[in-house]
Amino acid sequence: MADALFEKVAFIGIGLIGSSMARRMSADGLVTTIVGCARSEETRDKAVALGVVSEAFEDSADAVDGADLVVIATPIGSYGAIAKAIAPALKPGAIVTDVGSVKQAVVDAVAPHLNTENAFVPGHPIAGTEDSGPESGFPELFDGRWTILTPTDETDAAAVEKVKTLWQSMGAMVDTMTPSHHDMVLAITSHLPHLIAYTIVGTATDLEDDLRQEVVKYSASGFRDFTRIAASDPVMWRDIFLNNRDATLETLQRFSEDLTALQRAIRRGEGDTLEELFARTRKIRRGIIDAKQAD
Ligand code: NAP
Question: How far is the CA of 14 from the centre of ligand 1 (A)?
Fold first, then answer.
């Protein structure tokens, strides 16, 4: 057991990410007390029954009372209202962090509400599944995965170090970058792939009945892998696209141009163009396996 890094941690949102962090913190003795907040009684009861949190509150201001660390782990669209609600109730010196998949919009939504004695350390674990809710979390989720912290010039350096140590203690590797750089990187590695998956699965669901049935039957030929991504939480992904609009549109533009080039190569029978691209992309897959970031 490690020494506790924080006395009391409050999770605003106890779903996949919040409950995975809470489980790992408990398992490794990283904190002494863990409480949570969720809107529905069902989520709160479940989180307490599973032992993820010792107490769960409906009001976020009640949850953060006396906490040394507050983790916002709800869909991004709720961040501004949550920051406003918790700010007056925060203990002086308490650190606020988050796990949102977009960072510039999160900094803009949260930081203006907080007092200067409460540092905000924006974070994003690059780990997850398509499942949601407190029952879907597990303590090993962050093992060997990256967490990106995006402090700004105003962020207290000691608070960043504490949050970094926490993530490392939960098994993650930690990188630091600016919020806007994070958003550009994630637009290509995560947001665009999700948009493509949602589109492909959407196209399939619009097919005529007989064809749609065969899509499910023969899905192991490729379609199945897109459906896993396209099964991700609708509210979370709505908020990601609305809050990372510019970077998503920029990568989408590049993607459309590349897709048009491929379309032309197929029409013109340019096999070399296709083969050269597929050879390059295969190398990327091997690189991901070598970096131990493939499942
Ligand atoms: P999730 O499983 O759906 O959990 C969300 C939690 O937030 C639930 O406990 C929900 O309970 C609660 N909640 C929602 N709105 C709330 C509000 N206004 N006030 C208080 N609680 C609220 O979601 P998740 O997958 O953990 O995602 C949470 C965050 O992590 C998102 O910002 C997402 O961008 C980020 N993230 C997700 C992944 C992933 O793969 N899933 C990976 C990295 C980062 P109630 O509905 O009962 O309120």
Answer: 7
User: Does this model's pTM top 0.90?
Assistant: yes
Sign of CA dihedral 26, 32, 35, 36: negative
Q: Domains in the chain and their CATH numbers? A: 6-176 (3.40.50.720), 181-290 (1.10.3660.10)
**Ligand 1 centre from 293 Cα, in Å?**
23
Residues near ligand 1 with C-beta < 6 Å?
A: 12-18, 37-40, 43, 73-76, 78, 82, 99-101, 124-125, 128, 132-133, 233, 236
Q: From ligand 1's centre to the CA of 66, what distance in Å?
A: 23
Exposed e or buried b per residue across 150-167, where buried means at least 16 C-beta atoms within 10 angstroms of its C-beta: bbeeebbeebbebbbebb
- Give the residue whose CA is nearest to atom 12 of ligand 1: 13
Q: How confident is the model at residue 294 (pLDDT cuts 50, 70, 90)?
A: confident
